[in-house]
Task: inverse folding
């Protein structure tokens, strides 16, 4: 049912009033939050870890519910925006996003000489982040989750490609090697306009979809993240940038141009240099790089927990080990200790 609604909205985006679409999606978010359905309970479990790590204590029930409500509304706002992206003009979209962060100048400088990988989480609106990069940084090549609904997947891919984002899907054979090839080949270009410009390869990596990821410490627990960002960075000896995306309230002329009360900050919040890990065995280096980008990224999640859209089990306490492979012995022991209450 929800998939069919998303496809309908995408196909009629130009004829549907944006305020109406946003309002209906927010209503759906409120219903799911109120009834605690559609992944809302898992969202609360995940946010409990974040708020506990941030505040050093278990969150009060009222605070947790309030944060989950905001997160659910942020999540559904993302869908309403993503499915109607092509109906917005470039000027309108540009007013809705801005780059910021400690490493913004660094990524702008590095982008002049090389293709770059980036690690993101499911925060804010990552499609808007891709549009911002295409306009202000580098064209984007990324990976989309292979959905069971092929029709919905095709709509997502078409929308993103029209926004200048090139897409691979998960379960593509030799996916990591294909991404490396994109970075190597595009890196031979002399800049935008020569048909072979550099690329940004941002990966939503806070949840491993292959069950072959890296276990890392996060929010006083452990999560399993995708190896892609660390692999691209280490194997190509290219800096890995860490990105947080969160909403902000708009004012004045920018709000008028954006035609919406909220926009997004693309926060280039961290940078990992693979040269720091060259003396390590490759597998150890990949785990260490993964741990470092997650350490940096988690600071942004704790600052803006309401924009982390994680409605699936990701923490150690919720992991289904029967579906996992390549679980290190120390993690196996920790999982058993958690489940036995030790």
Result:
């Amino acid at each position: 049912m929800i998939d069919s609604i998303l496809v309908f909205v995408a196909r009629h985006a130009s004829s549907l009033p944006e305020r109406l679409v946003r309002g209906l999606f927010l209503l759906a978010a409120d219903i799911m939050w109120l009834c605690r359905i559609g992944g809302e309970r898992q969202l609360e479990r995940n946010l409990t870890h974040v708020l506990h790590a941030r505040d050093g204590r278990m969150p009060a029930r009222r605070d947790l519910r309030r944060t989950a409500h905001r997160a659910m509304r942020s999540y559904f706002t993302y869908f309403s925006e993503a499915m109607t992206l092509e109906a917005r003009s470039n000027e309108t979209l540009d007013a809705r996003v801005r780059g910021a962060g400690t490493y913004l100048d660094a990524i702008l400088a590095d982008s002049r000489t090389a293709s770059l990988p980036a690690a993101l989480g499911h925060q804010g609106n990552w499609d808007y982040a891709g549009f911002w990069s295409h306009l202000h940084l580098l064209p984007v090549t990324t990976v989309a989750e292979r959905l069971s609904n092929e029709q919905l997947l095709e709509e997502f891919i078409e929308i993103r490609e029209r926004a200048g984002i090139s897409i691979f899907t998960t379960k593509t054979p030799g996916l990591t090697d294909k991404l490396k090839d994109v970075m190597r080949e595009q890196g031979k270009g002399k800049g935008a306009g020569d048909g072979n410009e550099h690329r940004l390869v941002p990966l939503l990596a806070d949840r491993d979809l292959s069950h072959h990821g890296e276990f890392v410490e996060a929010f006083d627990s452990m999560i399993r993240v995708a190896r892609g960002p660390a692999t691209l960075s280490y194997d190509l000896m290219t800096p890995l940038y860490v990105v947080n995306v969160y909403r902000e309230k708009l004012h004045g002329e920018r709000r008028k141009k954006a035609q919406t009360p909220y926009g997004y900050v693309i926060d280039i919040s961290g940078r990992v240099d693979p040269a720091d890990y060259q003396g390590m065995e490759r597998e150890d280096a990949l785990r260490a790089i993964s741990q470092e980008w997650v350490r940096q990224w988690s600071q942004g999640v704790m600052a803006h927990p309401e924009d982390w859209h994680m409605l699936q089990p990701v923490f150690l306490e919720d992991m289904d080990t029967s579906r996992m492979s390549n679980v290190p012995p120390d993690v196996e022991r920790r999982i058993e200790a958690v489940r036995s209450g030790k």
Notes: The first strand starts at residue 97 and ends at 100. DSSP finds 13 helices and nine strands in the chain. Confidence is low (pLDDT under 50) at residues 189-195. Residues 124 and 246 are 5 Å apart (CA to CA).
